[in-house]
Specification:
Glutathione S-transferase Yfyf (Class Pi), Chain A, domain 2; four-stranded mixed β-sheet; globular; about 50% helix; alpha+beta; Glutaredoxin; about 230 residues
């Protein structure tokens, strides 16, 4: 099995890496050089969208991070897709919602505050308002529930939590969202999160990026955390 990525500091790549660690997947990680047109052209034969990550298992090629998570769970441990029809429906609900609503909101504000690409087309006040609407929905969904689908962790938690990869650096979760804060704290205690956090920091260091001072601009060509994710 092979996993194509551009770098390990991407929230989208983190989804796959988390699932791989949680499910004990052994794969060869292939890093595509974004600075090489030839490498990107070659990668387009794997994923015509030229976004990351992508997975190949034998003759099967899958792109889109959510689809990769679902495939890994289905082939390794289907309980990660929900143990009952109701849980499975909640898993799908949150994964679809993450792509349509939470992702654009969080990544827009993240990119504005950290200087990542692509630059959002809204001012910061509008981006904050978008985030607050999405965070209110997520906080309500987690209130009285340990994880998104119920009492057990699922791929929905991995997918949604990955969007908070830069929550601290970009101050994405203001005070008052107690259920989100509690849920994120539990996920950050998992070995998979700690491992991928180390990967993230190593990738940032390799690009010479220090995010200890928020809102420090990141020039194009150094790191693109969202533009090529999918």
């Amino acid at each position: 099995m092979e996993l194509w990525i551009h770098h390990r500091a991407s929230p989208f790549v983190r989804k796959a890496l988390l699932a791989g660690l949680e499910l004990g997947v052994e794969w060869r990680v292939r890093v595509v050089d974004l600075g090489s047109p030839a490498a990107l052209d070659a990668y387009a034969r794997v994923n015509p969208n030229r976004r990351f990550p992508a997975l190949r298992d034998g003759e099967l090629v899958i792109w889109e991070s959510g689809a990769i998570l679902r495939y890994l769970a289905a082939t390794r441990d289907p309980a990660w897709l929900g143990r009952t029809p109701a849980e499975a429906a909640r898993v799908d609900q949150w994964m679809f919602w993450e792509l349509a609503h939470l992702g654009p909101a969080l990544l827009g504000l993240q990119n504005a505050r950290l200087g990542f690409l692509p630059k959002p087309g809204k001012d910061e006040d509008a981006l904050v308002a978008d985030c607050e609407r999405a965070l209110a929905v997520l906080d309500g969904g987690l209130t009285g529930r340990r994880y998104l689908a119920g009492d057990a962790i699922t791929v929905a938690d991995l997918a949604v939590a990955s969007l908070f990869t830069y929550a601290e650096e970009a101050s994405l979760v203001p005070p008052g969202y107690d259920a989100i804060t509690r849920w994120l704290a539990a996920l950050r205690e998992r070995d998979s999160w700690r491992a991928t956090e180390r990967m993230k920091r190593e990738a940032l260091a390799a690009y010479g990026i220090d995010l200890s001072t928020r809102r420090a601009p990141v020039e194009r060509g150094s790191l693109d955390a969202a533009e090529r994710g999918g």
